[in-house]
Specification:
Low-confidence stretches: 1-27
Helix content: 10-25%
Strand content: 35-45%
Number of strands: 9
Number of domains: 1
Structural class: alpha+beta
Mean pLDDT: 82
Order of helices and strands: HHEEEHEEEEEE
């Protein structure tokens, strides 16, 4: 699996949140948490089921944004409430919890290998399934200060309905890590898609 594809949303969104929060919190002293609304989204590859999950961003909107060089803010379905606090070492630690939409797109027949979320789904006309999920997440170093090992991840769970009207329980649990040398590692990345009826 291509690790940049696995969490392209987290990478772009984390960069965005660092810019968004930088002016108000990066130079602040430790104190009460800020509660910003951020343009977080997540794109994940469920290799076992041959699906690409777009959470809080539509595939078509994301791919148009990518084609335009990621100009402007991310075209998310909605802003996500977060809680961010500055530690004594100056790192931004935070969490989020929100109900957001999800699209599950089938990968094109010519994959693997997986290349990118847009290219690997460009033969599909519409999502295979859509739904609403609860996204909870955490990050111990939002702005990548490299003063510590950055551990971030969360859980995305909910119900999706496929194109034939079937309902599925969806669960993605993930934990990612960037060490102080800037090396990226997927610690946990589990998907569970179970029919409910």
């Amino acid at each position: 699996m291509n690790k940049p594809m696995r969490k392209i949303g987290v990478a772009v969104a984390t960069a965005g949140v660092a810019l968004t929060l930088g002016a108000s919190t990066a130079s602040a002293e430790p104190g009460p948490p800020d509660r910003p609304e951020v343009d977080f989204f997540d794109i994940a590859l469920d290799e076992g089921d041959g699906l690409v999950a777009f959470t809080n961003i539509g595939r078509d909107d994301f791919c148009a944004w990518e084609a335009g060089g990621f100009e402007g803010p991310a075209p998310v379905a909605g802003l996500v409430p977060a809680m961010v606090k500055v530690t004594g070492q100056g790192a931004l630690v935070g969490s989020l919890q929100a109900d957001v939409p999800i699209e599950l797109w089938q990968a094109d027949p010519d994959t693997p290998p997986f290349i990118s979320p847009c290219e690997d789904t460009d033969e599909q006309e519409a999502p295979w399934a859509t739904g609403q999920v609860k996204w909870t997440g955490h990050d111990n170093d939002f702005d990548g200060s490299l003063t510590r090992t950055n551990v971030f991840g969360g859980t995305i769970r909910g119900t999706v309905v496929d194109v034939d009207g079937g309902t599925w329980r969806y669960l993605n649990t993930f934990r990612l890590q960037i060490n102080q040398d800037g090396e990226f590692r997927v610690v946990v990345d589990k998907f569970n898609l179970t029919p409910t009826g």
